[in-house]
Each structure stands twice: as structure tokens, then as C-alpha cells.
Amino acid sequence: MVRKQSDSDESRDQMLSGSAWMTAGSILSRFLGAIYIIPWGIWFGNYFFRANALYGLGYNIYSFFLIAAIAGIPSAIAKQVAHYNALNEYGVGVRLYKRGLVLAAVMGIICATILYFGAPLIDDGNPNVIPILRSLAWAVLIIPTMSLTRGYFQGYQQMAPSAISQFVEQLARVLYMLLTAFVMMQILHVDWVKAVSQSTFAAFVGAAAGMISLMVYYLKHRDVFRSLVRNSNNQLRVSPKELYREIVAQAVPFIILGAGITIFMLIDQFTFFKIMRVATTYSEATLADLYAMFAVNANKLIMITISLASALAITAVPLLSIALTNSEKKEISRQISNVIVLFLFVMIPASLGMAAIAGPLNRVFYGTTQQALGANILTFSSIVSIPMGLFVVISAVMQGLSENKRAVRFFLVGTLVKLLIQWPCIYFLGAFGPLLSTGIGLSVANWLILRSLDRQFGFEKRMLSIAMEKISKYSLFMYLITILVVHGANIVLGYVYHPFGRSGSLLVSLVGVGIGGLIYIYLTLKSRIADMVLGPRSNRLRRMLRIR
To answer: What sign for the dihedral angle of Cα 77, 79, 83, 86?
Structure first.
């Protein structure tokens, strides 16, 4: 019994360590992916909203092709490599990775070719989208191989190389975007569509940099990997045909579930304009601005919080696969419960915190154009990010437990719900409609997945009940205090400075985040709810902060 608890603690520590790396990489990458918009928007001037909308229209289609090119292979590789490593058959994992490389390269070439030459067929009647899609096709060539390599390292529970390469990729991408935007819009004064196409080509530049960082990591640790292979049992023989079959069988569900949020965004992209043309008399420019506000502007910011969920999901898959391999049902139940508690602990306060500072945060990134509507959309998007993040986590849990078909079926039910309510939501609620239909559709899918997990493996219900009650209570209290702080800071700052400009809004946002964050940390440490997530680490934090 003691050993089991020790195993559970070790799994939690692995999950926390892996999540810390993936969270750091995801947060830094998402932050860079959002902060660039400030100078980028200034340099595009009056074309900013149209440029951002065009960027989003191209990126949504590109994201779908990229997921198809990646084909779920990295997550499948991570899961299967972890499975074979648990059996001390490291050599099989290496062969699996090499076979996966071939598949990744082939899928990258096929999908990049279709995206490049098929761009005129999928531009939805907007010719400006064509050069954007063609510039993005180059990234599709290289990203599948990079993602596969990340998955291989994750199968060893080594999250650092993935996190570092993710940051390097985003840094190179943002630097190229800003350089080309400044040169083309401020110096050469070229057509804004050409400038946007260079900003999207930056995806290829970033991918190349990320791949190089992974290669450097492997070369530095090559001897360790080779030693593990030499000391394997080397008793398991798996034919190349069987390796390919395993990859494909595991990968297909990962395509559908990995593309889940992207599929919902594509539904919005191909329905929003059509429904709004029927429901309103708005001009195309106004519709583009509205689309940019909910699908691009708000989305960039909520993806920062959703990246927290992605970090948990990536870490959970190989750990659950190992527990399943060892037939440890109690350990699986503990790990599922730990994942959900960790999700609640991070995601709920992060989402409510962003909602509380939505006004100043929206002004920091997107200026004062339609600031009230933009802030309200960001507030609503922040709330919707909770079911979005939960879907990312629990669908990954299902995949880690080889419940792929069932997870896909539940997602399809959620997608059907979104399709059924999409028209009335957009018709009556405008830009808020797609967000509401997404929230409802994913909530249905989440409920079905959680019910299935509970029936098969069970949850530690007392722990979840306590965590849900206290985390929700403390997050709501933090939310209310942060709103008061934001309003108070606006009033105080108004006596000496303009609080609604970019710099003033940045100061107000930082004050709100700082005070709100400290309140939440204090309450969770004081009540000992943080111990469920952090374990013994919470005692050190209490001593540092002098909390009894």
C-alpha cells in the first residue's frame, strides 16, 4: 500500500515537472505570439484589423492542414514509446521513431502540395487568402518532422527539449514577422497583403529554428539514448509492417481530437460571414472587423491560458500509457483525478483573471478602436476557454488510456451540437454567437468524456469535490477583487495620467494581475488546497511567504 502511494507521488512529481516545462514553453511561446501584435498593429496602421482578419483566415485553414500533416503521429509516438520504454524495450521505440519519420515526411510533402496548389479552391471567395495559404505551405513541409521528434522525447518524459524548441520556434517566427512588417509597411510601403504573407511565411522560419534546437539537444544526449537501447531486454520483435500499423492505429484519433478546436474555428470561419450577411446590413469591412475581434484578437489571448491545458495534456498521455501498460487501475484513477485537479487549479483562476482585466488588456494589445465591444468579447472568450481547455486535457487522457474511438465519438456529438445551434447563436448574438456555440458544443463533449472515464476507471470524488468547491470559491473572490482593483486603478491613474491609453492600460493590467494572483496564491496555500497539486512544495512556499 505504501509502495502504491509512493508510485502515485512519483507520478504526480513527474507530471508536475513535465507540466512545468511544457507550461513555461507554452506560456512564453503564446506570450510572444500575442505581444508581437502591438508593434505589428502599429506598423500596419489603418490596415491593422483587415490584416489581422486575413492572417486569421489563412491560419485557420493552415492549422487544419498542419494537423492533417502531423496526423497525430507525435502524440501516438509519445504514447507508444512510453509503452515500450516501460517494458524496457527502448530499441523498439527507436525503430518506431524512425518509421514515424518516414510517415511524417511523406504527410508533410502531400499536405504542403495540396495547400499550395489547392489554395484557390479553399479561399472561400477571398483572393487575398491565396498568397497567405501558399506562404504557409512551406511550414507544413518541416513541422511534422519537428513535432514527431518532440513526441519521441516526450515518450521518455523529457519535456525540456519540447519546451525549449517551442520557445525558439516562436522567437524566430516573431522576429521575422516584425522585421518584415516594419521593412515592408514603414520603409518600402508595399501592398499590405504582401506584408501579411511574409508574416505567415514566418511559420517556416520558426519551424526551421525549432528543428535545429531539437537536433542540438539530441546530439548532446546521444550517448544516453544509445546506452538505454544497449541495456534493453531486446526480446520483443516487431516487424516494420506492425510498427506502421501501430502508428496509424494510434494516430488517426489524434488527428480528429487534436484538430478539435481548429475544426470548431473553421466552422465559425465558413459560417459567420454568411449568417451575418443575412442577419445584418453590415459592410464587408465591418464583418471582417467583427470576425477579427472574436476569432483572432480574443483567440490569441485566450490561447495563452489554453496553452496551460495543452501542457497538462502532453504530460499526461505517456504517464497514463505507462499505468495502463502495468494494469494499475487505482493508479490510473489517481492520475486522472490529479490531472483534473491540476487543470482546475490553474485554468479557472487564469481564465477568470483574464476576464477581470479584459478591458485594459484588450487596449494594450489592440488599441482603443471599438474597445468596449472588444473587451466584452474577450471577457466572454475567457469564460469559454474553460471548456475548451478541459476538452484538450480530458481528450488527451482518453487517448492515453487507448479510449480513442469513444473519445472521437463524443467529440463528433459535440460538433453536431455546435452545428445545430450555430445559426441561431450567430443570428441573434452576432460576434458572441460562435463563442457560445463552441462553449456549449465542447461542454457536451466534455460531459460525455468525463462520464465515460468515471464509469470505467472512477474518480477520487471527495478530492475532486473539495478541489472544485474551494478553487471555484477562491477564483471568484479573486475575480471580484481584481475587477475592483482595475476600476480603482483607472480612477487613481486618471488624476495623473491617461488610464485608457496603451501604457496606462498596461500598468493597470499588471497591478490587477499582481494583486489578483497574490490573493489566489495566499488563499490556496492558507487553506491547504494547494497541497493537492503541489505536494510538499506547498510547505516551502508557505514558509517563504510566512503563511501559517
So the answer is: positive
Return the closest-CA partner of residue 429 out of 415, 414, 416, 439. 439
pLDDT at 12 over 70: no
For 104, 179, 191, 193, 199, the CA distances from 133, given in Å and listed in that order, are 20, 20, 17, 12, 12
Q: Cα separation of 33 and 186, whole Å?
A: 21
Q: How many CB atoms lie within 10 A of CB 144?
A: 30
Burial (CB < 10 A; 0-12, 13-18, 19+), residue 501, is: middle
The pTM assigned to this predicted structure is 0.76
Return the pLDDT at 27. Answer: 65
Q: Which residue from 347, 307, 216, 388 is spatially nearest to 24, judged by alpha carbons?
A: 307
Torsion of CA 324, 328, 334, 337, to 10 degrees: 30
Of 27, 11, 16, nearest to 354 (Cα)? Answer: 27
Task: Give residue for cell 506570450.
Answer: 31
Q: Report the C-alpha gap between 116 and 114 in whole angstroms.
A: 6
DSSP letter at 72 equals T
8 A C-beta contact, residue 523 and residue 477: yes
Q: Which residues contact 359 (CB under 8 A, 6 or more apart)?
A: 371, 375, 486, 505
Three-state SS letters, 394-441: HHHHHHHCCCHHHHHHHHHHHHHHHHHHHHHHHHHHHHHHHHHHHHHH
Cα dihedral angle (313, 315, 318, 323), rounded to 10 degrees? -90
Return phi, psi of residue 499, to 5°.
Answer: -75, -15
Amino acid at 131: P
Q: What is the pLDDT of residue 18?
A: 47
| CA dist., res. 244 & res. 255, Å (int) | 16
Q: How far apart are CA 115 and CA 126, in angstroms?
A: 15
Which amino acid, residue 496?
V
Closest by CA position to 439, among listed 464, 422, 424? 422
Q: Three-state DSSP class for 528?
A: coil
Strand, helix or coil for residue 460: coil
Angstrom distance (rounded) from CA 187 to CA 391? 45
Coil/strand/helix, residue 71: coil
In this structure, what C-alpha cell is assigned to residue 358?
479584459
Nearest to 501 by CA among 368, 329, 404, 377: 368
Q: What is the pLDDT of residues 326-348, one digit of tens each?
A: 767 787 888 888 888 888 888 99
pLDDT tens for each residue of 30-63: 677 778 888 998 899 888 888 888 888 888 888 8
Task: Give 239's DSSP letter.
Answer: -
Alpha carbon distance 402, 76 (integer Å)? 10
Q: Are 411 and 360 in contact (CB under 8 A)?
A: no
